[in-house]
Amino acid sequence: MRDELSDRGKQILEAIIEDYISTAEPVGSRTISHRYGLDLSPATIRNVMADLEEMGFLASPHTSAGRVPTDKAYRLYVDSLLEVRAIGRGEREQIKRHCDIRGKQVGDVLKETSRMLSSISHYMGVVATPHVSANVFRHVEFVRLGGRRVLAIFVLQNGTVQNKIVETDTELSPVDLVAMGNYLTEFLQGLTIAEVKQRIIEEMASEKARYDNMLARVLDLSRLSLPDDDSELFIEGQSNILDLPEFADVERMKEIFRAFEQKGHLVQLLDRCLTAPGINIFIGSESRLGPLSGLSLITSTYATGKNTLGVLGVIGPTRMGYAKVIPIVDYTAKLVSRVLELE
Q1: 190-239 confidence digits (pLDDT tens)
Q2: Sheet of strand 233-236: strand arrangement
Q3: CA–CA distance, 124 with 46 (Å, rounded to integer)
Q4: What's the per-residue H, E or C state across 250-264?
Q5: What is the pTM of this model?
Q6: Which intervals hold domain Winged helix-turn-helix transcription repressor HrcA DNA-binding (predicted)?
Q7: Which spans in the chain are helix H?
Q8: How far apart are CA 27 and CA 66, in angstroms?
Q9: How far apart, in whole angstroms, are the C-alpha atoms of residue 199 and residue 326?
Q10: CA 104, CA 261: separation in Å to the nearest integer?
Q11: 14 contact partners, CB below 8 Å, separation of at least 6
């Protein structure tokens, strides 16, 4: 068995992968010989395909004499063989229309972005909203609801509004709440939520807070009111994979849909992408998520300035059209980043 793939082996493997992406049918040597104009006999192609199978690039389905690519083959294809095409003008215009933020909440734009990614790729679109801790604080308001219940309204720099109802130790008057909101808005202006939490912890430990009753109450109220750090996940287009032949098994489809309903493992996978800016591609078992082993995920981070905010991408079968999907994901992430910076 050869340690490295020859140029002939790469050429035949690329033809097999592209044929399988197009047809979802196991590929035989005669098909490669006829369709791809290789100046090789079917017998020679068969021998090369046997070598490719021995090296782990191809597998033989029990019901067919043809071969199908493995995850290892797709990884080589994406890393070394693929020619990514330029995104078309029509696709650019469609993406721009859906990413128009004017008059919309940021969350609505991101949800629409996941729908657009699904529509334009014909697979599933996914967008993970920014973790709250990465967002910059703009201002806070407190509204008395009755008794000791207070509505805290946090407004973040990207336009997101977070509401939270808290219960205080003592009743606070509307005048006190306005004063507290004004003080915190000035005191915490320009910090990320993560920095806000750290600042409040430091101030609560200080001597000044210990002897200033009103400051202690302000800091305690802000501690209770800070928004949770959950990232929301938008997934659109699950039905797009229902008609794909590789997912014809009903139990397999149920397993995949349960994984998307639970979302937790997918969020963890997307969080791994936050530390690796730009395009990331997980092929099949590389995601280390059992139910998603027959799927690939292409993602890119979106950011404002140097601050990575979230992740967006496309989920499809391992035989997805990588040449088409990669530039769509890349362009969308860059456009969303620009739009959020202008907001």
Answers
A1: 887 777 778 777 776 776 656 566 677 777 777 777 766 566 788 898 88
A2: 233-236, 124-128, 307-317, 295-304, 279-283
A3: 36
A4: HHHHHHHHHHHHHCH
A5: 0.74
A6: 4-75
A7: 7-23, 29-35, 42-54, 71-76, 89-98, 106-121, 174-188, 193-204, 207-211, 213-225, 250-262, 264-274, 322-342
A8: 5
A9: 41
A10: 26
A11: 77, 81
Q: For residues 295 and 240, what is the distance between their CA atoms, to the nearest angstrom?
A: 13
Domains of the chain are 7-81 (1.10.10.10), 89-131+231-342 (3.30.450.40), 133-225 (3.30.390.60)
Q: How far apart are CA 321 and CA 90, in angstroms?
A: 18
DSSP 27: B
DSSP state of 87: P
Q: How far is CA 203 from CA 71, 185, 212, in A?
A: 52, 15, 11
Please name which of 72, 59, 74 lies closest in space to residue 27, comparing C-alpha atoms.
Answer: 59
Distances (CA, A) of 81 to 88, 191, 303: 21, 45, 29
Handedness of CA 156, 160, 161, 162 (dihedral sign): negative
Q: Which two tokens stand for residue 225?
A: 């009111």
Determine which helix (DSSP H) or strand (DSSP E) holds 246, and give its type and residue range.
none
For the chain, list residues with pLDDT below 70. Answer: 1-3, 63-64, 101-103, 131-135, 158-160, 204, 207-214, 227-231, 262, 291, 305-308, 342-343
Nearest alpha-carbon partner for 191 in 106, 132, 110 = 132
Cα(237)–Cα(171) distance, integer angstroms = 48
* DSSP secondary structure, 281-338, as one string: EEEGGGG--GGGTTEEEEEEEEEETTEEEEEEEEEEETTS-HHHHHHHHHHHHHHHHH
The first and second tokens of residue 143, run together, are 């509204």
150: its two tokens:
């207070």
